[in-house]
Amino acid sequence: MTTAVQTGRTVKLEILRQDTEGGATRWEKFEVPYRPGMNVISALMAIQQNPVTVDGKETSPVTWDMNCLEEVCGACSMVINGRPRQSCSALIDQLEQPIKLEPMSTFPVVRDLQVDRSRMFNALKKVKAWVPIDGSYDLGEGPRMPERKRQWAYELSKCMTCGVCMEACPNVSEKASFIGPAPLSQVRLFNAHPTGAMNKDERLAEIMGDGGLANCGNSQNCVAACPKGIPLTTSIAALNRATTVQMFRNFFGSDHMVD
Ligand code: SF4
Ligand code: FES
């Protein structure tokens, strides 16, 4: 057992391990030296330096994803004590011990706590979650948005594709086609942009089909789980209205509408 040199305190962790995608899982217990201000990532780094379980058994270093370390990139999401969240902003002092770490279950496990979030990125591609511009020359300033619209659009733009809302949603799974709350909210964001609106009807067509809006079960788990406080259910309600209008436009054979 490892003991802390300075404080004498330790941090106890239980980690769900998995060596390969689809491979067998096992729980392993670790105990690392405590330092004030530690987060879950610094505890994982301590395990990486000395991958030995509490029983003194040598094991492989635990694998996880991370990048920004300041809750901006979304890469370090995992289930911590039963709640999906970012491990970089999960402070040891605020967590009950033993701290249980598991990979998010909505995404395929690559190894240990590292998951493959491709499903979310593919959904963003499917709904054209970008503003198409010609980047080959200086376009100057972009079009201005009304301030009220800009304010809510800015909130939606805070999405860091962390996958937490997808994990919290009971309708998102490997077996289901639902694209999930984050990609839906991005449809609202890019349809609100004056240039992005050029592809508005294409985005709406995507979410009116299989795996789109109709697959939302309105559990409202997503909005409660989002670490960025993104109003996901407001986005979904707004998209329900937009797709209803689009349905009438399609029915009456309207021209390509961009407003
Ligand atoms: S909407 Fe929120 S919870 Fe979902 S991926 Fe974006 S930041 Fe994460
Ligand atoms: S490392 Fe980027 S959100 Fe945690």
Automatic annotation (TrEMBL):
Signal peptide segment: none
Matches recorded under InterPro entries: 2Fe-2S_ferredoxin-like_sf (IPR036010), 4Fe4S_Fe-S-bd (IPR017896), 4Fe4S_Fe_S_CS (IPR017900), Beta-grasp_dom_sf (IPR012675), Helical_ferredxn (IPR009051), SDH/FRD_Iron-Sulfur (IPR050573), Succ_DH/fum_Rdtase_Fe-S (IPR004489), Succ_DH/fum_Rdtase_N (IPR025192)
GO molecular function terms listed in the Swiss-Prot or TrEMBL record: 2 iron, 2 sulfur cluster binding; 3 iron, 4 sulfur cluster binding; 4 iron, 4 sulfur cluster binding; electron transfer activity; metal ion binding; succinate dehydrogenase (quinone) activity
Gene Ontology annotations of biological process type: respiratory electron transport chain; tricarboxylic acid cycle
Protein's UniProt keywords contain Metal-binding: yes
Cofactor: [3Fe-4S] cluster; [2Fe-2S] cluster; [4Fe-4S] cluster
Superkingdom per UniProt: Bacteria
4Fe-4S ferredoxin-type domain boundaries: 150-178
Gene3D superfamilies: 3.10.20.30, Alpha-helical ferredoxin
Keyword entries, A-Z: 2Fe-2S, 3Fe-4S, 4Fe-4S, Iron, Iron-sulfur, Metal-binding, Oxidoreductase, Tricarboxylic acid cycle
Keyword Iron-sulfur: yes
EC number: 1.3.5.1
A Pfam short name: Fer2_3
Record-stated family: Belongs to the succinate dehydrogenase/fumarate reductase iron-sulfur protein family.
NCBIfam families to which the protein is assigned, alphabetical: dhsB, PRK08640.1
Protein name, as recorded: succinate dehydrogenase
